[in-house]
Amino acid sequence: MDGNGRWAKARGLARTAGHTEGEENLARVVRAAVKHNVGWLTAFGFSTENWVRPRAEVRHILGLHEKLFGRVAELNELNVRIQWIGRPFDSPDARTPRYVQRAIRKAIADTATNTGMTLTVAFDYGSRAELAHAAQRIVTDNVPATVDALQQRLYLPNLPDVDVLVRTSGEMRISNFLLWQIAGCAVHFTDKAWPDFDEHELELALSLLRK
Ligand code: IPE
Ligand code: MG
């Protein structure tokens, strides 16, 4: 969900205002995705690399994730099941504060029986950390390093392969996001900053599925 900072700057607002609008926009995009029968939507909220940002900005983004995972009533109304992908809370490098952990656990439990779209939020997530973690588990389990063995040891083994990856804000590059899962996927690049990514943009991304 890139471009929150630039969106804010273009309007003479603080970066934090861009993050706030970005969180609101995810709620809008979730609604639009449900309307378009999307089965799985995964959003990159905060990466393993993002912790170096100014403390006040990190604190603001943490609060927004607490808010996001607090949208249980909305998710239930939409029959959306929420899950989280990221460094396990008990791993040595994990940095997710307890209040965000609690919000994540509660949202997962309170939407677990929903049967519609699965919304996965990546928080303290990095693809390289995920793959290193899976590789370490292969070593620990002392099993042959096959594609299936690695897939089964990802953070969320049941997360399907990605069909369409969206990259916002004019960035023509791939980040440290779902590198294993995006093999062969279509990519929708857009100049729109994340807060401006609307239903029409979602339709453009989904149109790549039919090509
Ligand atoms: C995305 O917006 C939000 C996070 C990475 C947490 P940015 O903060 O990267 O916005 P830009 O790239 O500075 O515009
Ligand atoms: Mg950025």
Can you walk me through this structure?
- The structure is a single chain.
- By secondary structure, this protein is α/β, with parallel strands linked by helices.
- The chain contains eight helices and five strands.
- The protein has helices at residues 4-10, 15-35, 55-69, 72-77, 98-110, 127-141, 147-151, 199-207; strands at residues 40-47, 81-85, 118-125, 164-167, 186-189.
- Strands 1-3-2 form a three-stranded parallel sheet, with helices on both faces. The protein has a two-stranded parallel sheet with strand order 4-5.
- Helix 2 runs parallel beside helix 3 (55-69) and helix 3 packs parallel to helix 5.
- It is globular.
- It starts with a helix and ends with a helix.
- The relative contact order is 0.18.
- It binds 3-methylbut-3-enyl trihydrogen diphosphate and magnesium ion.
- 3-methylbut-3-enyl trihydrogen diphosphate binds next to helix 1.
Q: Helix and strand layout, with pairings?
A:
Blueprint: H1 4-10, H2 15-35, E1 40-47, H3 55-69, H4 72-77, E2 81-85, H5 98-110, E3 118-125, H6 127-141, H7 147-151, E4 164-167, E5 186-189, H8 199-207
Parallel strand pairs: 1-3, 2-3, 4-5
Bound molecules: 3-methylbut-3-enyl trihydrogen diphosphate and magnesium ion.
3-methylbut-3-enyl trihydrogen diphosphate (IPE) binds next to helix 1.
Low-confidence stretches: none
Bound molecules: 3-methylbut-3-enyl trihydrogen diphosphate, magnesium ion
Which class do the helix and strand fractions yield?
alpha/beta
Approximately what portion of the residues adopt beta-strand conformation? 5-15%
Task: Give the helix level as a range of percent.
Answer: 40-55%
